[in-house]
Amino acid sequence: MVEVKLLGAWGSPFSRRVEMALKLKGVEYEYLEEDLNNKSPLLLKYNPIHKKVPVLVHNGKPIAESLIIIEYIDEVWEGPSILPQDPYERAMARFWVKFLDEKCMPAMWKAFWSTGEEREKNKDEAIEHLKFLESEIKGKKFFGGDTIGLVDLAANFIAYWFRIISELVGVELITDDKFPNLSKWADEYINSSFVKENLPDKDKITAFFNARIRAPDETKYFPKA
Amino acid sequence: MVEVKLLGAWGSPFSRRVEMALKLKGVEYEYLEEDLNNKSPLLLKYNPIHKKVPVLVHNGKPIAESLIIIEYIDEVWEGPSILPQDPYERAMARFWVKFLDEKCMPAMWKAFWSTGEEREKNKDEAIEHLKFLESEIKGKKFFGGDTIGLVDLAANFIAYWFRIISELVGVELITDDKFPNLSKWADEYINSSFVKENLPDKDKITAFFNARIRAPDETKYFPKA
Description:
By secondary structure, chain A is α+β, with helices and mostly antiparallel strands.
């Protein structure tokens, strides 16, 4: 009997990436919600190094790190391909997701949660990164082409979470006039029926980040950790 | 005609990872040395986002980021496998190389180049990370098992570069008594004939980091950038 469990957190874009991948492949799984303020013994056992969600447990064997989990899912289960078949295209997809997590996410995050001159500098940096994404998505429906792929799943934070924070903190980054293609992609992504039904509730996410604004030191982490 | 070019830097462990992968596969390539203080128009054209080595150019198409390049090489060329065949083992290899680059490398680097109390704190952090590696390599010749694989290539900085820096700055991290298995692996790795002939000259590396000690602000970068 195949047994698939996902340890996740409702508000984490990293967990949601993996959930989307499982759903794209039609994999049945048991979802276990983690309380990140009081991590379960199971999470600490399965991800002793990072102690973070998501963790996929397949027949008792754990895998951590959302992008690594998604590659595993794509390799193990039949169904629509999440990574491109062509090795060069696959390398490019890996390049963009690394860029998203290592450059875009931290730069945007810093722009949101800094103030004054520091914020302006961080905004400029974020915009420099986003220009590369804008140019990559131009002329395509999804980063994956006509269908949702690895880069779309990884960019989910831009399409949903960061739009909400952007409004809350009053930092405009991906506007229709400056990033028309990226904006269009974000609309397309969150409104595609498959994604729509798998996004966390907007009011709950808003409340989470509102709490962060009120008590920045106490809720300084992304839903991730 | 297949054309493979590698833009690299002699002292960069990231470049050396890719060179090792090409040699493991027996791929013929043209090597182009980059002067990182005066980057070539070719490097800026092929890696406009990061402007870093290594870049592999295969039939005119560029790929950046050492670990992404190695996966590409493994997928495109015949020869000994660099990543494991089994999807779970492959996921684990990806996990460890991410851990090496995102956790071990920065923590060790900070321990080397800080002082006083700050250094002690950084050393403790590095040691915490290294304990996981110590336990992973225990009982195995290489991270890849009996033969050199992705994780060994990625851990090259621990086996060679960081040992040299460790001596230079007088910060002991991977000692025989604290990390017997990791030490043994490092010896095994740098002394395997295949690796040995592909390592940069020790005196040149020593001179490079000696310069860093004398003028920390001017040569603050790893050979990487």
